[in-house]
Prior knowledge:
Elements: E1 6-8, E2 19-24, H1 38-43, E3 46-51, H2 65-77, E4 83-88, H3 90-105, E5 113-117, H4 135-145, H5 150-154, H6 156-170, E6 187-192, H7 200-203, E7 213-218, H8 224-227, H9 229-244
Parallel strand pairs: 2-3, 2-4, 4-5, 5-6, 6-7
Antiparallel strand pairs: 1-3
Amino acid sequence: MNTDVVFPLDPAPGPTPGLALVAVPHAGGTAHAFRNWLRPARTRGFRMYGVRTATPGTPAPDRTVRARARHLAESLAALGEPYVLVGHSLGGLIAAEAVLHLERHRPEAVPALLVVCATVPPHLRRPPPVAGGTEEEAVAFLRTAGGTPEEVLADPGMRELAVAMLLNDLASLRGYAWEGRRVTTPTAVYAGLTDRVAPPEPLARWTEAAESVTTRVFDSGHFFPHDRTAELLDTVRLDLAGSTGSPAPDRPHPAHRP
Length: 258
């Protein structure tokens, strides 16, 4: 497997059973955000993989949405096994572009299911969330989105790091425009009922960007993938079974829900 981008999150040594679930984090986030998914994912028959994000030291041409999607697609193709691809917010856009790349260049390596969470459809024009690139704007956005503890924003050093990571990821969006090709891979679109960044209404328009779409709404905000992890993973199992016409991955026995 190409470990430049995709890597196993589960620290257990040796091979572990289950269907691979690859998770792409939100803007400003890292694979560490999905560490709390490990146990509930394992009890539902999934093996968690993280995705390395671009850093401020990454060359500018490699920080665009499409460049990051291409690198992700190459790593997914090297995975060599069936998998589910989940992306949160900006991660959902990168995941969708990665699937488009695979459909064009490596159709045998597309995921069994693409799941985009709190991700505005790629063809909808949107104002940049932090247009001026200032710390004040970034902090206001982080507060609106939720998910960042107030103690992080109150500490100057931690706040500076959180803002730098967010702005670095948002820079990926500069010059991005949807090319108009629809995703043909089965796609599940998940929204948060009270999400102020990516509200449910525009997310319904993913049907214009993907051919086979299932839409679900969770009773939470922008960070519902981490507030409602168990419910989300159960829904992924349900949508996976519906998209493939085959049973969802077996739960280990005895199963224990957190």
